[in-house]
User: What shape does this take?
Amino acid sequence: EKALGSTGGMQRTAADSPYYGAWLETAPVLYGELRTALLAGDLAKVGFLTERSALAMHASALAAGVVYVTGATLDVLAAVRALRRDGRVAYATMDAGPHVKVLTSGREAGLLVKTLRGVPGVLRVLETAPGDGAQLIEEAL
Assistant: This one.
């Protein structure tokens, strides 16, 4: 459970963070680069940009005294960076909370799950995969 909900946290961040304006200015640039990387199927670039965006949001929030990260959150981020240093595909992202989501390739998923389960403080690891994509469903009348 979060001590401060996402809406209240963002309101406080907007009001009190000296970095909020910079975060808003960089968001459209990151979006454009991310869209290009997604369309190109460049997982490494998507991961890099996604991680950068999430960390920028949390940095802005931290500067306003809004702290969602925990020790376990930081340890997971460190494990993800260590995997990357070892040549693995692993990029972290987070919403307004302590939970880390990690982007990886299918062939790296098993190692990633094993590594994250070994991080002290991690309560559970859920493995998911991309769905089939958007589909138009016609309802029968």
In short: The mean pLDDT is 93. The two ends are 43 Å apart (CA to CA). The beta strands are 91-94, 100-103. Residues 30 and 53 are 7 Å apart (CA to CA).
